[in-house]
Amino acid sequence: MASNQEEVKVFGMLASPFVSRVEIALGLKGIEYKYQEEEFGNLSDTLFKYNPVYKKVPVLVHNDKPISESLVIVEYIDETWKQNPILPSDPHKRALARFWSNFIDDKYMNALGKVLYTHDEKEREKCIEESEVALQFLENELKDKFFGGKEIGLVDITAVFIAFWLPIVQEVMGLKLFNNEKFPKLYNWSQDFNNHPIVKEKLPSRESLLAFYKARFAS
Amino acid sequence: MASNQEEVKVFGMLASPFVSRVEIALGLKGIEYKYQEEEFGNLSDTLFKYNPVYKKVPVLVHNDKPISESLVIVEYIDETWKQNPILPSDPHKRALARFWSNFIDDKYMNALGKVLYTHDEKEREKCIEESEVALQFLENELKDKFFGGKEIGLVDITAVFIAFWLPIVQEVMGLKLFNNEKFPKLYNWSQDFNNHPIVKEKLPSRESLLAFYKARFAS
């Protein structure tokens, strides 16, 4: 199918860092797409049809073929459009990128999810500790401007929550999880990442996220 | 480096289905390797050095470069040795293989881990239900001899626990989680998979696993 006939659609939600991963990956490739906003708690029938297993965003639909799960989608984008590679070409470096990318979901996002949603104070402290251990691993792993080297790669995209969401979430919750003193390299990385012209274009506005989390934690 | 100078080493444990994934993938590629058995609760310093993040098996070491996490390792094997592909070449089919492979770990292995290790009867029943829903998704997804088509692919390798471990575990625990009546397609698949000559060569013996789980659940 010729490139000008391609149809690329993203089903997303404003406040989802998982959706941002997909939009940033498409942005880095220079691919235009239609964006369909889904409503929390009131997902469309189309979304259910496209993602019957997890029933959640993001879903990428490329020429009528749906793909779910943000990291699976990002690898699909990298394999479908070859310009501006997101994964390195060397197999060992690819493996490391996948390893750290999975690490962020397994060890960081899980621990932080529990910090945000548990009511048990002891459990929360344990999860904060876990999340700090995970951030320290990432701090040690960062050896260049980006995890991907001079350019944004898979691990950077996966870590969008840490760069952009985390400072907002900790402000709303009155927590100190991530700052320049604790994690200086990661903090500098977050600034470079958030200010990258394509990332900046794809991220939701700080104000809209602040409003979203304030409403969420108030209720 | 010439192929006859390559050094491939696997750090494993007899009873680990995650290690089996790696050994089956290497077997399908026809790659010889040295196997180093690790002791549960008494891991070697070498393993700690190679996998400081998770401190667990499997670890693949290829020409002194370590890689951890079974699914990351299997993709590395597929990208390093091109013969007998484990993932399809079409990007959308690759995405589906990764999706279902991750599904097995997220939705099935997690639910089943809780079935085996919880003492709460209600919690166990909930997890059994979840694990059955996950198996039903896989039953519906199986459209050929293997998930990979005529040949074993990523999803088959990921599902080795279901094919070989699950019948043993349910026997030891007196549970009925997986059989021919509930999941006829998956059951036939499990027979084909376990009897594949390379899989058969790489799996631990049924007797050793039975003994392992009997000892484990007795204690």
What is the structure about, briefly put?
Chains A, B: This is glutathione transferase. Chains A, B: It catalyses: RX + glutathione = an S-substituted glutathione + a halide anion + H(+). Two copies of one chain form a homodimer. Chain A is of the alpha+beta class and about 220 residues long.
N to C succession of SSEs of chain A: EHEHEEHHHHHHHH
Q: Give the chain pair forming the largest contact, with residue counts.
A: A-B, 23 and 23 residues
Total helical elements of chain A: 10
Number of DSSP strand runs of chain A: 4
Global mean pLDDT of chain A = 94
Q: Nearest-angstrom radius of gyration of chain A?
A: 17 Å
As a percent range, the share of strand residues of chain A is 5-15%
Domain module tally of chain A:
2
The portion of residues assigned to helices of chain A is: 55-70%
The CATH topology of the largest domain in chain A is given as: Glutathione S-transferase Yfyf (Class Pi), Chain A, domain 2
What's the CATH class label of the largest domain in chain A? Answer: Mainly Alpha
The order of strands across the largest sheet of chain A is 2-1-3-4
Summing up helix and strand content along with how strands pair, one would put the structural category of chain A as: alpha+beta
Poorly predicted runs of chain A are none
Cα distance spanning the termini of chain A: 48 Å
CATH architecture verdict of the largest domain in chain A: Up-down Bundle
- Multimeric organization: homodimer
